[in-house]
Amino acid sequence: MVLRGVWLLTNILATPPPPPPPNVPALKDRGEDGRILSVRQSMEAHRANPVCASCHLRMDPLGFALENFNGIGQWRTTEGAANTPMIPPGRSRTAPSFRVR
What we know:
The protein contains 3 helices and 2 strands; from the N terminus they run αααββ. With 101 residues, it is mainly alpha-helical.
């Protein structure tokens, strides 16, 4: 998500984000219960830190918009080595569903 969002901000919108602070913690790949987290879930936890949220509020929506495309533009429904299912378009873990055309 971050790489896609940064790329869009820098190359398309000409508004690159500032560099990350030197002490940014690594994303957690497992939840408190030991289950593997999706990238979206890891990013949501990372954004809970107010210092990180200031930049990620700009980058993440752009990256999430392209989340279902892999590095060469093919559609995907899972991510990572654990093949974690991704949220399908028009769905949310917290909001009601809506129709995507």
